[in-house]
Amino acid sequence: IDVYSTSQLVCETQATKKPRAVIINTPVPSHGGGRAIATHLLGKECFHIGSKVVKEGTWGGNAGNAFDTGRVDRFTKVKIYHGDVIYGLEITFVVGGKTQRPMVIGEKKRTSKEITLNEDEHFTSIKGYFKAIEGYDISITQLTLTTDKGRKVSAGIETGNSFSLALEKGGHIVSFFGLVGQPIVAVDAIGVHCSLADP
Question: Where are the membrane-spanning stretches (predicted)?
Answer without folding.
Answer: none
